[in-house]
Design brief:
- It is a single chain.
- By secondary structure, the chain is α+β, with helices and mostly antiparallel strands.
- The protein has one domain.
- The chain is about 30% helix and about 25% strand.
- A hairpin with a 2-residue loop joins strand 7 and strand 8.
- The chain is globular, with a radius of gyration of 19 Å.
- Bound molecules: zinc ion.
- Zinc ion (ZN) binds next to helix 3.
């Protein structure tokens, strides 16, 4: 079967038909694959407040696109394996999206520094972000081409499917959130994830519904100031970031100008 051969070669599916049986990257069985979201749909849906589309900034940050239902991949997971992530996805939605009004703002004078999470299940939130990272790495969708875990892909798979312990605390999560726009929801644009380094320490950076998620994939510890911002079992903070003075805003502005010039 041509598609199976393509998969073995790690190639991109060009002749994939919906519902075709190919190897699931979760269980490894030859099963019917489903439309699997990498970044759960509700992070996209959050963007729809100001219109019926959402803004998506593609890899390389040079091109803006519009999406109606978010990016999904029909060549990676069967229904059962995707179902494993459903619990993580639902919990993340409950805490980070629906529960945001329960976050306690942290002020320094009149400056909003961030928010403190209410008591939460740290393991579930960590598993959620690691599962998004793993899904992005196994995906062949162009939007996720910046994510390639290489040797760590199987390591992470053990964690997200079998709850293997992250013994070296290699994977840590840091959350930032853009301050809400005065109008519209431009700050919630979904931007393609990328690999970044902070003083040599390697991270993947995701943009989801106004959150900027930093996932450390390095055995070395984060620099001291960033260690303080990592999500922990008993304490979670989200750092506030001003969207309009951010690098991302600059990229987005350029892409928007090109988009409307076309
Ligand atoms: Zn499967």
């Amino acid at each position: 079967m041509a598609t199976f051969w393509d998969l073995k070669k790690g190639g991109v599916f060009t002749n994939m038909h919906k519902g075709e049986h190919v190897t699931c990257k979760g269980c490894g069985y030859d099963k019917k694959l489903i439309d699997a979201h990498i970044i759960p749909k509700f992070f996209y849906m959050e963007l729809r407040a100001d219109g019926n589309h959402l803004n998506v900034l593609h890899a390389g940050n040079e091109r803006i696109g519009r999406s109606f239902k978010g990016d999904y991949d029909n060549s990676i997971l069967c229904k059962d394996c995707d179902g494993v992530f459903e619990k993580y996805d639902d919990y993340a939605k409950k805490i980070l999206i629906n529960g945001f009004n329960l976050f306690r703002p942290i002020w320094r004078g009149s400056e909003l520094l961030g928010w403190e999470l209410p008591p939460y299940d740290f393991s579930k939130i960590k598993l959620f972000f690691l599962s998004v990272l793993w899904r992005a790495s196994i995906s062949t969708r162009p939007f996720f081409k910046g994510v390639d875990l290489g040797m760590l892909e199987s390591d992470l798979k053990e964690i997200v499917f079998n709850r293997a312990v992250d013994i070296h605390n290699r994977y840590t999560i840091m959350l930032c959130k853009f301050l809400p726009s005065k109008s519209g929801t431009l700050e919630k644009t979904i931007i393609a994830p990328e690999k970044v380094r902070v003083r040599e320490i390697v991270y993947y950076k995701f943009y989801m519904g106004g959150y900027i998620v930093w996932v450390k994939i390095d055995k070395r510890m984060a620099v001291r100031v960033l260690q303080k911002c990592e999500l922990r079992r008993l304490k979670g903070v989200v750092l506030a970031t001003d969207f309009y003075s951010s690098v991302e805003y600059g990229d987005l502005e350029k892409a928007m100008i090109d988009f409307y010039a076309e």
